[in-house]
Each structure stands twice: as C-alpha cells, then as structure tokens.
Amino acid sequence: MFCNGGVGPSVERRDPSRIVLADDHEDLLREICALLARHFEIWEAVNDGQALIAAARDAKPDIVISDIRMPGLNGIEACRRILRDGFCEAAVILTMHNDGKLVSQALDAGIRGYVLKMEAGEELIPAVKAVLSGCTYFSRGVRRNS
C-alpha cells in the first residue's frame, strides 16, 4: 500500500461504502461477496464488464472491484469507462494475473488497487479501505513494470 499516513487497524463493523463487483466465476463471486459483506454494503455483483458499467451507472457506488478477464469487455476497460464517465471515483482489480503490463494498464486507466486472488482473504479489505481513502494498494509480490 502506498499512502501518506497509512490505514488504521481493521475494524469489524460495517462501513457504509457501497461496492459493485464483477467476476465471471460464480463461486468466487459468491465468496468475495461474503467476505466483503462483513465490512461493506454490496450493492450489486455481476459477471461481465458491460454489466459492471451498467451497475455502476445505476448505483453510483463508492468503489468498483473487478476481475480482468471476463466475457465481452475486460475489467480494466470497464473500470476505465466507469471512472472516466464519473459513475464512481475508485476501482480495484482482483485478479489471478500477476503481469507487470496489466498492472501498468490498470494504473493508466485510473485504477488504484491491484489485488491477487490468492491474496484476497488477507488483502482485499485493506485494499478497498486504502483506495477509498485515496491511496494506492498493490498485493505483496505484484510485478510492476518500471
């Protein structure tokens, strides 16, 4: 995580921040919803990039969380459009792809969080909190191009 002042300790109470998330793997989407619902309000969960844009347009969430590889429109491009069109001000990528080129594409799109799925249990909630507070968050071990 990169932020002046850092993020405080984890709190088990629910944050009123609204989340829209997207992943094309139904079982994983359910698990991520369950993890996040303990801390945030899940407004909608969808399984492709076009549906993510529509949900963000309708809900105006505080943050969107998206996988990269999905049918139709990929998560980076969906987040780019959501941020550009002002439907939401913060986005996190949740992916299994640890690729410096994809990290660079995400950053270029305005996405401030990049979490590896294998680290989601430990890192997704801190990543969401960091990005919501204006910081940038990368999972440990994420490869970035220089």
Notes on the protein architecture:
Mean pLDDT is 89; it is low at 1-11. The chain has helices spanning 26-37, 49-59, 75-84, 100-108, 120-132; strands at residues 18-22, 41-46, 63-66, 91-95, 113-116, 137-138. Helix 5 links the parallel strand 5 and strand 6. Helix 2 (49-59) packs parallel to helix 3 (75-84). The two termini are 17 Å apart. The protein is of the alpha/beta class. The protein has a 6-stranded parallel sheet with strand order 2-1-3-4-5-6, with helices on both faces. The chain has a single domain (18-138), classed as Response regulator (Rossmann fold, 3-Layer(aba) Sandwich), CATH 3.40.50.2300.
What's the SSE blueprint?
Layout: E1 18-22, H1 26-37, E2 41-46, H2 49-59, E3 63-66, H3 75-84, E4 91-95, H4 100-108, E5 113-116, H5 120-132, E6 137-138
Parallel strand pairs: 1-2, 1-3, 3-4, 4-5, 5-6
Helix pairs in contact: 2-3
The parts where pLDDT drops under 50 for at least 5 residues are: 1-11
Shape: globular
Overall tally of structural domains? 1
Sheet with most strands: 6 strands, parallel
CATH class: Alpha Beta
Q: How far apart are the termini?
A: 17 Å
Share in β-strands: 15-25%
Q: What structural class do the secondary elements suggest?
A: alpha/beta
